[in-house]
Design a protein that fits this description.
The chain is α/β, with parallel strands linked by helices. The chain has helices spanning 18-26, 29-34, 46-51, 58-69, 77-85, 102-115, 121-134, 138-153, 156-162, 171-179, 188-192, 214-217, 219-231, 247-251, 255-272, 282-288, 291-294, 302-311, 315-322, 347-351, 357-364, 387-390, 392-409, 419-432, 443-448, and strands at residues 195-196, 204-208, 234-237, 276-279, 312-314, 339-343, 369-371, 413-416, 439-442. The strands form two sheets. A five-stranded mixed beta sheet has the order 1-3-2-4-5. A four-stranded parallel beta sheet has the order 7-6-8-9, with helices on both faces. Bound molecules: iron/sulfur cluster (2 copies). It holds the Pfam family CCG.
């Protein structure tokens, strides 16, 4: 990849429009000018593929950012829409010959947009509630888990659905409610403690990043992650003071909040003095691995954040590159026929953490499994953090096309490595599945269920 090239100086413009001023201040102008307009990124971009229009492409969005920064256009509603339509999937980065850091540009643009927000009151309230009030606080996440569990198990859910009350919500939220997994207040630490010993001689000491929503909605996957790591020879510690990674904040223009969370995590994990920091969610891992960039302007945190970022790894890569990979037996299939399995990449795992081959390698090591590669498995499924909530139309269009490729595999299992993708794929199977039984699972759960516990 080409190294950073500066082809233009930040213009000295006194913008009268405050949003244009914020964009000029916050955007990395070198990155804007590094884009040489070649268009190699266009075929990789899901929103361009869906719409075919230039402003819905990475090149188009970069051109819009630069035009506003240069004072050639006003940041109007169309500008906001194009910035918000981007999935942040970063499929445009690996294909870019100029190594333009598009992910950083879109985060900077959204950060500037959030300095001058135009949200309705309810959206403003929800953002404040979740970004500031819930995600950063473990005790409140546990309360959320407890409340959701009560809703799911007490019969309230049946009443809400039966009474037609759910119809008060927009259709896409009704759909999401249907596929929500069972929530719990018993996260991985409540179930396993803070230290879990390795099986046999320890290869390394690793720390689990448990996530925020992950530990409420997918606590079972966190538990299986720890046990799988232990089985492969790693001693696992789980720092109790760790907080949300800040990915949803960073992608939604709340960079200062993301930085506050990053500082807490860097401090807490540094104290553990571990060899690796393990993520099992592509969306979280991709921000964790870039904490050094997130905090690069903060001299006091430069060294520590670089230490942190250099140790972050996805579980699949750690198992393949350093683990004693255990034998994975045949599943509980009643037939002796091989089980067909396919895999949907997490965009952030593939495009940012660059772990595309390791999940496939692990799947191929399971007994009696035939791995069927899906056409365009590297294309975003439309989940993209909270994109399927904020941009339901585009998310649904992308999902529908994704499901054509999923169904063509004829797989019995559809695996993925990120909670958001997992829920989106569940929704896809429910709405557009081909009618045959297809189970959607996190890669870790699929592997853990097939461990030979000898
Ligand atoms: S591939 Fe890179 S350099 Fe080419 S248009 Fe896209 S962002 Fe610009
Ligand atoms: S991040 Fe994804 S959606 Fe956004 S411009 Fe790049 S490829 Fe397109």
């Amino acid at each position: 990849m080409a190294s950073k090239v500066n082809t233009g100086k930040k213009p000295q413009i006194n913008h009268t429009n405050p949003l244009a001023h914020a964009l000029l201040e916050k955007l990395d102008y070198d990155q804007l000018t590094n884009c040489m307009r070649c268009g190699f990124c266009l075929p990789a971009c899901p929103t361009f593929r869906e719409t075919g229009v230039e402003p819905e492409s990475p090149r188009g969005r970069i051109a819009l950012m630069k035009a506003v920064a240069d004072g050639l256009m006003e940041p109007d509603d169309m500008f906001r829409d194009q910035m918000n339509h981007c999935l942040g999937c970063r499929a445009c980065e690996p294909v870019c010959p100029a190594d333009v850091k598009y992910g950083q540009l879109i985060e900077q643009a959204r950060d500037a947009l959030e300095d001058h927000p135009v949200h309705s009151l309810p959206v403003k309230g929800m953002r404040k509630l979740f970004f500031k009030g819930v995600f950063p606080h473990r005790s409140r996440l546990k309360s959320l888990g407890r409340t959701m569990k009560f809703y799911q198990q007490s019969g309230l859910r049946r009443v809400a659905r039966g009474s037609g009350m759910m119809k008060l919500f927009p259709k896409h939220l009704q759909d999401m409610e249907r596929i929500l997994p069972d929530a719990t207040a018993q996260g991985v630490i409540e179930q396993l403690g803070t230290v879990y010993p390795a099986k046999g001689t320890p290869i390394a000491r690793v720390a689990l990043f448990r996530g925020c929503i992950m530990d409420v909605m997918f606590a079972g996957t966190n538990v299986n992650t720890v046990k799988l790591l232990a089985e492969a020879g790693f001693e696992v510690v789980i720092p109790p003071e760790q907080v949300c990674c800040g990915a949803l904040h960073a992608h939604s223009g709340e960079l200062d909040l993301a930085r506050d969370l990053a500082r807490i995590n860097v401090r807490v994990f540094k104290e553990m003095n571990v060899d690796y920091i393990v993520s099992n969610a592509g969306g979280c891992g991709a921000l964790l691995v870039e904490y050094d960039h997130l905090l690069h302007e903060d001299e006091a945190w430069k060294e520590q954040s670089a230490w942190f970022a250099s140790r972050v790894v996805d579980i699949s890569k750690l198992l393949v590159e350093h683990g004693r990979i255990p034998a994975f037996r045949d599943g509980a299939s009643s037939s002796s026929e091989p089980v067909v399995v396919t895999y949907q990449d997490s965009c952030h795992l593939r495009n940012v953490m660059r772990s595309g081959t390791e999940p496939r390698q692990l799947i191929s090591q399971v007994a009696n499994v035939t791995f069927q590669e899906m056409k365009e498995a590297d294309r975003c499924c439309g989940s993209a953090g909270i994109y399927n909530v904020t941009q339901p139309e585009m998310a649904s269009q992308i999902l529908e096309h994704k499901m054509e490729n999923v169904n063509a595999t004829g797989a019995r299992y559809l695996l993925t490595s990120n909670p958001g993708c997992l829920m989106q794929m569940k929704l896809g199977v429910e709405k557009h599945g081909c009618g045959e039984a297809m189970e959607v699972q996190h890669l870790v759960d699929f592997l853990y269920e097939r461990l030979n516990h000898s």
